[in-house]
Amino acid sequence: MYTLPVISKSGKKEVQVNLPEEINPHVLYEVVRWQLAKRRRGTASTKTRGEVAYSSRKLYPQKHTGRARHGDRGAPIFVGGGTVFGPKPRDYSYTLPKKVRKLGLAMAIADRAKEEKLLVVEAFEGVNGKTKEFLAWAKANGLDGSETVLVVTENELVRRAARNLPWASVLEPEGLNVYDILRHERLLLDEAALKLALERIGAGGEA
């Protein structure tokens, strides 16, 4: 059980969330590897000796020239020839058990909570879509840009206000994932995003 601070206009507030106490780096590795594999376009392609634009005529007779024997100009041994065992378009994605994916997300959130790098926001007061408004809010709440921050909120105006900052990335609550959590130093969730995240990982929480 972790106690998370909540940024609230009404004063000090906390929320209790049930997250894993032990964090297994290998589970996080497996989930990140699965995510990045899914993102690969898999469009790399090379031509074999049968696909390069060269004649298939034999260069010169097999014997009695004093030179090495060769076939056509498109052989891999020649510059511009075909590629042996080169990449072809393929799908790099693979399946990962849902239980492992849920556990990975729970551990990633728990890791930020354990490091005291997870903040919950009741409401982004004064932020109405302008970057300067989010900057003012962030400065007032101890976020000065010295650490990268992942902002997860259902409020489109807040996402619009934060997306241009070099130290902040924004996501909708449905898009919360292990890779983006781990590549940012801080995790900032609004209450709706926290509720959805806890539902996804099957954990409970209470204010």
Automatic annotation (TrEMBL):
It comes from the Bacteria. It holds the Pfam family Ribosomal_L4. InterPro entries: Ribosomal_uL4, Ribosomal_uL4-like, Ribosomal_uL4_dom_sf. One of its GO terms (molecular function) is structural constituent of ribosome. Keywords: Ribonucleoprotein, Ribosomal protein, RNA-binding, rRNA-binding. The keyword Ribonucleoprotein applies. The keyword Ligase does not apply. One of its GO terms (cellular component) is ribonucleoprotein complex. GO terms for biological process: translation. One of the primary rRNA binding proteins, this protein initially binds near the 5'-end of the 23S rRNA. It is important during the early stages of 50S assembly. It makes multiple contacts with different domains of the 23S rRNA in the assembled 50S subunit and ribosome. Forms part of the polypeptide exit tunnel. Belongs to the universal ribosomal protein uL4 family. Part of the 50S ribosomal subunit. This is Large ribosomal subunit protein uL4. It comes from Marinithermus hydrothermalis (strain DSM 14884 / JCM 11576 / T1).
